[in-house]
Design goal:
Low-confidence stretches: none
Shape: globular
Number of strands: 4
Strand content: 5-15%
Radius of gyration: 17 Å
Helix content: 25-40%
Mean pLDDT: 95
Order of helices and strands: HHEHHEHEHHE
Bound molecules: flavin mononucleotide
Number of helices: 7
Structural class: alpha+beta
Strand order of the largest sheet: 1-2-4-3
Length: about 190
């Protein structure tokens, strides 16, 4: 698959088959992530991989209640509130793999570098027939000291981008893009 095809075809995937993502495949995704550019080539990233489905389910339950409590209630659209209140809703969409890209405190904006690594990972995954989706719902949970300890993140590390990975059970729906907004072209 060429790069342009991957960029234009990748969509967030929220329905997965039961097929696990094996270790070699996860490592290939992490290697792709680390090919991203980073300021001063600091490569300020580290990765936590979680493939224990029970642990993910437990994290999801905790994340839902935490997110509901910590999010700015005004900014939560009714659909989101409803999802968070549904006991059956799993913020990881029952995916078998969660990769958390964590920023190490090096340089001015290690989080920017981690986001670039995340896009590399998601495009590489798409090229390999895998589906991904960033999961912002998980942020408040992942920032908790106990979870950081569980995931071997040092206290000063920041969980920048949690990404679920799995084999799509059906093609994701198209998601339209807004019209280009070109501010100037001098
Ligand atoms: C930082 C970030 C956080 C996101 N968090 C969630 C999330 O918690 N749950 C979810 O279903 N999708 C999440 N998404 C996916 C977006 O909803 C999705 O990227 C957007 O609707 C555009 O669709 P596309 O990825 O298919 O192009 C997140 C995306 C980003 C970039």
């Amino acid at each position: 698959m060429d790069v342009k095809e991957a960029i234009f075809q990748r969509r967030s995937v929220r329905e997965f088959t039961d097929q696990p993502v094996d270790r070699t495949t996860v490592l290939a995704l992490l290697q792709a992530a680390t090919q991203a550019p980073s300021a001063v080539n600091h490569q300020p990233w580290a990765f936590a991989v979680i493939q224990d489905k029970m642990l993910l389910r437990g994290y999801s339950d905790r994340a839902k209640s935490l997110f509901g409590r910590t999010a700015d209630q005004g900014s939560l659209v009714p659909e989101l509130k409803e999802m968070l209140a549904d006991p059956a809703f799993n913020i990881f969409y029952n995916a078998g793999t969660l990769i958390v890209i964590c920023a190490k405190p090096i340089g001015q904006h290690p989080d920017w570098d981690c986001c670039l690594a995340g896009q590399n990972l998601m495009l590489a995954a798409h090229g390999m027939g895998l589906g991904t989706c960033p999961i912002g719902f998980a942020w408040p949970l992942l920032e908790g000291p106990d979870v950081k300890r569980d995931l071997k993140m040092l206290p000063e590390y920041i969980p920048v981008l949690p990404i679920i990975v799995g084999y799509p059970s059906k093609p994701p729906p198209p998601v339209p893009r807004n019209a280009l907004e070109i501010l100037c072209w001098k």
